[in-house]
Amino acid sequence: MSSSSQRKDKSSNTKKADNKEQPPRPPHFSMVRNFYIADVITLMNGVCGVMSVFGSMRYLLSSDVRDLYSAMGFMPFGLFFDFMDGRVARWRNNSSLLGQELDSLADLISFGVAPAVLAFAVGMRTYLDTIVLTYFVCCGIARLARFNATVASQPKDATGKIAFFEGTPIPTSLSLVAILAYFVLNGQYLHMLPGQLVTVAPGWEIHPLVLIYATSGTLMISRTLRIPKP
């Protein structure tokens, strides 16, 4: 056999080996097809959070207070879906690691980013205000990451539900939204925010009201505060 024929045989054998080693391609939309019902409910939580952010952004463009009400209204619906996804997952006994990660990401949008953007929309817009709001969102990120990292080792009941929260859960940020909703309903927003502006140093101003976000974020990352899970 000639050397050229041997090279052709070797190349054909190599191609056959490569074809055997390649894994079969997954079907289209395989990830979506593998979603459980609870995962779809969790995604609806994320949808509510994103719609809330868009509502706040629309208000910045339109100055129409109805956009603020829309932004605030989506967040309680997000809480409803956040409440339901865990119940459905335990009822059907088909929770997954993917669902856990989806839940944390959706919570971050609905109860971390959306309330912070709402605060900016209603008037907390100074540079120091945005630093505090960023701290609040970062506390939410840290709290959710800690929960995901420790949930496997936390005590659970017979249904698989953990016994307590370490630090306040991130959905408690809806209490901040309720406070802002009260002020908006009474016309106390933008330049009429309670507490007005405080000058910390020349050129550095802050709204004292933004400190409720700092307090909420700090409580979320507390390691000594334990709250029984309902």
Question: What is shown here, in short?
Answer:
The protein is mainly alpha-helical and 230 residues long. The chain contains 8 helices and 4 strands; from the N terminus they run ααααααβαββαβ. It has helices at residues 3-21, 30-33, 37-62, 65-92, 97-122, 127-150, 174-185, 211-220; strands at residues 164-166, 198-201, 204-206, 226-228.
Q: Would you identify the regions where 5 or more consecutive residues have pLDDT less than 50? A: none
What fraction, in percent, of the residue positions are helical?
A: 55-70%
Instruction: Give, in order, the helices and strands.
Output: HHHHHHEHEEHE
> How many domains, as an integer?
1
Task: Kindly state the number of beta strands.
Answer: 4
CATH architecture tag:
Up-down Bundle
Strand order of the largest sheet: 1-4
Description:
The protein has 230 residues and is mostly helical. It has one domain: Four Helix Bundle (Hemerythrin (Met), subunit A) (Up-down Bundle). Helix content is 65%, strand content 6%. It has eight helices and four strands, in the order H-H-H-H-H-H-E-H-E-E-H-E. The strands form two sheets. Strands 1-4 form a two-stranded antiparallel sheet. Strand 2 and strand 3 form a beta hairpin. Helix 3 runs parallel beside helix 5, helix 5 packs parallel to helix 7 and helix 6 packs parallel to helix 8. The chain is globular, with a radius of gyration of 25 Å. It starts with a helix and ends with a strand. It is found in: Endoplasmic reticulum membrane.
Notable characteristics:
230 residues; mainly alpha; Four Helix Bundle (Hemerythrin (Met), subunit A); two-stranded antiparallel sheet; two-stranded antiparallel ribbon; 4 strands; 65% helix; globular
